[in-house]
Amino acid sequence: MMQKAIQMNEGGTRVEMVVATIRQRIAGRNLTPGARLPSVRGLAATLKLSTSTVVDAYERLVAEGAILARPGSGFYVANQAAPFALAEAGPKLDRAVDPFWISRQSLEAGEADLKPGCGWLPPSWLPGDGMRRGLRTLARADGPALADYGSPLGLPQLRQLISRRMGERGIEASPGQIMLADSGTQAIDLLCRFLLEPGDTVLVDDPCYFNFHALLRAHRAKIVSVPYTASGPDIELFAQVVADERPRLYITNSAIHNPTGATLSPVTAHRVLKLADQFDLTIIEDDIFADFEYTPAPRLAAFDGLERVIHIGSFSKTLSASARCGFVVAKPEWIDGLTDLKIATSFGGGRLTAELVLNVLSDGNYRKHMETLRHRLSRAMSEVSAKLKNLGITPWLEPKAGMFLWCRLPDGIDAADVARAALEKRIVLAPGNAFSLSQSATNFMRFNVSQTLDPRGFEVLRDILAE
């Protein structure tokens, strides 16, 4: 493992590469405080380096306080951890396949830039008129709605509405089992704070939403992955990883998987839950794309009754990314602990946003908007899929719903190289290895069909692939 990491860090001296690799392994919690490092001779033999190179690297790490030298015993990771650097916690990848690269380029792109790699709808596809009506209603609200802290659990009327919506997907949850959050991302962050200790193992899909990787590294978790198939995780490998690694959590999408667009099958869902029960595994089910479905797919939380599964959702994808509002659905005893944690980290809830979301969702026009949006996405999916196929870019599957196409580029084409070239033309793409912990998606790319309709994007892709 150490040798593989060294080989990945090209450039610089051998000493610098050894130093960088050990720093990375400490930051990623693969080497924890107090852990003994390999002996100088042992590491030199493993890496096929001179002992003087390893000695110099260890001396540098001792000088900066990252490790300790104990005469007659060896070298150990220092108990006084250095300030956490999130960028150091992941593999040293080219910036074109770094999740932060995709997020920053997408968020900072100008209005004229194209963003086929981003994860949200164009503003013109969102219910702007409904948001304006909600804002006008909110402007006439009484003082507490505009000025007071919200309750830690969140606006009761919105939690009641979410409870009814959960029932439509087969998930029985009272309003008391629902806690509002500022977003789906904050919901997962709170759950990681609540359930994880640094160094705990967390299982994710491969590929999966790239911000899962970043968030888990921020919590200093050890991340392992299992390949994802058209019907859910590869169940045989899932069973093997769960038995070998004993992860504390499994984080996944079940309805519309990001980035593949796949849907979890009932058979796979039942087998996942049996393994979770056998190995004491807690599951976080991220369901932020629920409203894009025509027919509700199987939910782990529905099969499980919220015993081992925690369900989260958000309205950022269907209403507005500016009005951030998400939620957690869990068993009552966990909601109680999460509420205390929310008070400690953000105090009261965001009442103003919750009131706005409630107004828009209660408007009869929201369901009409979503029906129109689903049809619009379906047409875009067909159109974009056909145009990509003409370029030799092949969808991994044809999703039943949603906005994402997970595509294979022509043989021999590196998606990172395509992304860098496209960025020079002010087009932001999402290369596959950003989603893959195993780095096995070199020639894959995720396309957001709602953001891939502009002819300029296909022209640029055609030119890049022809080079």
UniProtKB/TrEMBL annotation:
GO terms for molecular function: transaminase activity. The keyword Transcription applies. InterPro entries: Aminotransferase_I/II_large, HTH_trans_reg/aminotransferase, PyrdxlP-dep_Trfase, PyrdxlP-dep_Trfase_major, PyrdxlP-dep_Trfase_small, Tscrpt_reg_HTH_GntR, WH-like_DNA-bd_sf, WH_DNA-bd_sf. The keyword Transcription applies. Residues 12-80 form the HTH gntR-type domain. Coiled coil: none annotated. Keywords: Aminotransferase, DNA-binding, Pyridoxal phosphate, Transcription, Transcription regulation, Transferase. In the C-terminal section; belongs to the class-I pyridoxal-phosphate-dependent aminotransferase family. This is PLP-dependent aminotransferase family protein. It comes from Rhizobium brockwellii. The lineage of its organism: Bacteria, Pseudomonadati, Pseudomonadota, Alphaproteobacteria, Hyphomicrobiales.
